[in-house]
Specification:
The protein is built from 21 helices and ten strands. By secondary structure, it is an alpha/beta fold. It has two domains: 6-317, ABC transporter type 1, transmembrane domain (ABC transporter transmembrane region fold, Up-down Bundle); 339-573, 3-Layer(aba) Sandwich (Rossmann fold), CATH 3.40.50. Helix 18 runs parallel beside helix 19 (508-522). The protein is elongated.
């Protein structure tokens, strides 16, 4: 696997926010440079009051000059922080949008191996983890190259010896920052990976809480999460110990350097080799000189945190989709005809066989049923038909037109898919039905719901179409959720319908209602059904029997069921 250069990716994001970052750097550098004026004024006031014998009246003009300097410096620093924060917000919005677009391009097949909890953690926690890098670390890098230089130039005429001490000790701080920081960076990256996995596992447990309670396993899972959380806490404390050690070393060298300057100034003041004004002026500037260096050392840990957070972001953004975006935007071809699979095969990236040498035709306006044991290749065929994945061999044609020449978005509008457990979102019934037709009015929605036999229970809901559903469609029953999904497909006319055992897990009455609703949906359309329970095949035109990724038999259901063949074996097993 290619090594992810996360640091290079972070640097590549800088041009997007060059304006706010440049403004933040200029404001911060100006605020830091005003320290020279501030120190000069303070030194003048203290020297005049202590050694010059000046009273408040004589010093008041200088105090009035210092007041706006303090205010301007504080305002510039606040404005610099705001600009840096705006840059971080802009980056987070951009990266989050790119991730969502990447998820759309990757599709269900591209994200099949990702856990939903980990994806949610990347979208929320990892993206938020980018803020310290852009809001604090980059401004600190910009200031460390400007403010110490300005202050060094200001100190040099006043006391060349102190300037020499500053020049010699300044490199020690970033040196120790790098030496200690490298170890912390490795630990931090590991912690982000652990946090992502922990978030994914926690969401999986919440989603499966009902099953865990039924099998009396909820307490065991809670204890396992508690152990994982405690291990994460201990490792986090190890990272913090290293971070605090780094900060302590930086503070130690800063304090030692300032103390050396103070001792040199003190001895020369006692010997009369230096006047108080210049000595106090240099002493006031010494902490200001080291402040950007100390700040950079502290923000170096922010950079390490961001590098760890960005690792999963970069991994997902670099993942190649099964269907390239360029293919997804081809010119639409509206013609609808028979669908031909000619020598179609597909192998997954891990080497697993999905399909091999498939040659079948799905007649337009007819009902084709796919049967076969688990792992036979039914789901792979459906994924190919839905264009979630492209064939690795052979070709799929709509009439005489290769499927890859048809616009991806246009093809998606031609296909309606209803699964065993349709996904209903935590929004109103209206929004769930018009998911594929956002501009549909209530009259069209009601008509679609009536055809799907869903209107009778919808109008009985507390707020009708405005009733807000919970996660997964709560409080609707399984049959009601299926009829909402059928109404959704009814509203957006799609000449091709793919059904994945939509009556599974339903009681007899609900199954009867769903089957009746499906008759309206599938009339005069090309229908492909994935069947796991052969008793539910019903009235179909063609049966395709798959096994181990290969076509075993295809034809009308009655002749197939008469002979001694694989289809009959499946019928016997499930009789």
């Amino acid at each position: 696997m290619e090594t992810l250069d996360t640091s290079a990716w972070l640097k590549a994001q800088r041009p997007q926010v060059a304006g706010p970052l440049r403004a933040a750097a200029i404001a911060g550098a100006t605020a830091g440079s005003l320290a020279v004026v501030q120190a000069w004024g303070l030194a003048w006031v203290v020297d005049g009051a202590v050694f010059g014998g000046q009273g408040l009246t004589q010093l008041m003009p200088w105090l009035w000059v210092l007041l706006p300097v303090f205010a301007l410096r504080a305002a510039l620093q606040w404005r610099a922080d705001r600009w840096a924060f705006q840059a971080a917000q802009q980056i987070k919005r951009s990266v989050r949008s790119r991730l969502l677009e990447q998820f759309r391009v990757l599709g269900p097949a591209g994200l099949a191996e990702e856990r939903s909890g980990e994806l949610a953690s990347v979208l929320v926690d990892s993206v938020e983890g980018l803020e310290p890098y852009f809001a604090r670390y980059l401004p600190a890098v910009a200031l460390v190259g400007v403010i110490p230089l300005v202050l060094l130039v200001a100190v040099l005429p006043a006391d060349w010896l102190s300037a020499l001490v500053l020049l010699v000790t300044a490199p020690l701080i970033p040196l120790f920052m790098i030496l200690i920081g490298n170890g912390a960076e490795r630990l931090n990256r590991r912690q982000w990976r652990v946090l992502t996995r922990l978030g994914g596992r926690f969401l999986d447990v919440l989603q499966g809480l009902t099953t865990l309670k039924i099998f009396n396993a909820s307490r065991r899972e809670a204890e396992a999460i508690a152990r994982s959380s405690d291990a994460f806490r201990r490792n986090t404390m190890a990272v913090l110990r290293l971070a605090f050690l780094s900060s302590a070393v930086l503070e130690f060298f800063t304090a030692i350097s300032i103390a050396v300057i103070a001792v040199f100034i003190g001895f020369r003041l006692l010997n009369g080799e230096m006047d108080f004004f210049h000595g106090f002026f240099v002493l006031l500037l010494a902490p200001e000189f080291y402040l950007p260096l100390r700040n950079l050392g502290a923000q170096h840990h922010a950079r390490m945190e961001t590098v760890g957070a960005a690792e999963d972001i970069v991994r997902l953004l670099q993942r190649k989709p099964y269907i390239p975006p360029a293919v997804m935007e081809r010119t639409p071809i509206p013609t609808l005809a028979d669908i031909h699979f000619k020598g179609v095969g597909f192998r997954y990236p891990d080497g697993r066989l999905g399909l091999e040498g498939l040659n079948i035709t799905l007649p337009a306006g007819r009902h084709t049923v796919l049967v076969g044991p688990s792992g036979a290749g039914k789901s792979t065929l459906v994924a190919l038909l839905l264009r979630f994945i492209p064939p690795t061999q052979g070709q799929i044609l709509l009439g005489s037109t290769p499927l890859e020449n048809i616009g991806y978005a246009d093809w998606q509008r031609k296909v309606a898919w209803i699964s065993q457990r349709p996904r209903l979102f935590s929004t109103s019934v209206r929004e769930n039905i018009r998911l594929g037709e956002p501009g549909a009015d209530d009259r069209a929605i009601q008509t679609a719901a009536e055809k799907a036999l869903a209107w009778d229970f919808i109008k009985e809901l507390p707020d009708g179409l405005d009733t807000r559903l919970g996660d997964g469609g709560h409080p609707l029953s399984g049959g009601e959720r299926q009829r909402i999904a059928i109404a959704r497909a009814m509203l957006r006319y799609s000449p091709i319908v793919v059904l994945d055992e939509p009556t599974a897990h339903l009681d007899t009455e609900a199954e009867k209602q769903v089957r009746q609703a499906l008759k309206s949906l599938t009339r005069n359309r090309t229908v492909v059904s994935v069947v796991h329970r052969l008793g539910g095949v019903g009235d179909v035109d063609q049966v395709v029997v798959l096994d181990a990724g290969r076509l075993v038999e295809a034809g009308c259901p009655d002749p197939l069921s008469q002979g001694v063949d694989r289809y009959q074996e499946l019928l016997v097993k499930q009789a």
